[in-house]
């Protein structure tokens, strides 16, 4: 009886390890990257508004501008290696969408700098 119960527990633990690997894989679903503003915006009791929305689809980063921003500097950096993936200035209009493919894995930071807005967000890309 003791062997059967130990075998049963072992099988339960083993089946749990198989599904844990699925959680470690990069999801192909759309994930939103929270953007934190660094400009002096007053604190309200409503959701934090950002003129920029960032989403991840696998290893493609989609940047969506909700307001027109002149000369906005977009920087994507690998935090672990300090490698700059993208450093580019845009004259963004409402609805401008920028897709950036990120090759590699690790922790990344995206930052935005314009005359009227500054913000940043952090996200992970997992290796396949």
Task: Please provide a written account of the structure.
This protein has 128 residues and is an alpha+beta fold. The protein has a single domain, classed as Immunoglobulin-like (Sandwich). The chain is 18% helix and 46% strand. The chain has one helix and nine strands; from the N terminus they run αβββββββββ. It has a five-stranded antiparallel β-sheet, with no helix packed on it. A hairpin with a 4-residue loop joins strand 5 and strand 6. It starts with a helix and ends with a strand.
Short note summarizing the structure:
The chain has 128 residues and is of the alpha+beta class.
Low-confidence segments: 19-25
Measured by DSSP, the beta-strand proportion falls in: over 45%
Q: Tell me, what's the shape?
A: elongated
Structural class: alpha+beta
**Strand order in space, largest sheet:** 2-9-8-5-6
- Sketch the major β-sheet: 5 strands, antiparallel
Helix proportion range: 10-25%
Q: How many domains is the backbone divided into?
A: 1
Instruction: Quote the CATH topology.
Output: Immunoglobulin-like
Q: What would the average pLDDT be, to the nearest integer?
A: 79
Topology:
Layout: H1 2-24, E1 30-33, E2 36-37, E3 52-57, E4 60-65, E5 69-78, E6 83-92, E7 97-101, E8 106-113, E9 118-125
Key terms:
128 residues; alpha+beta; Immunoglobulin-like; four-stranded antiparallel beta sheet; 1 helix; 9 strands; 18% helix; DUF3244; DUF3244 domain-containing protein
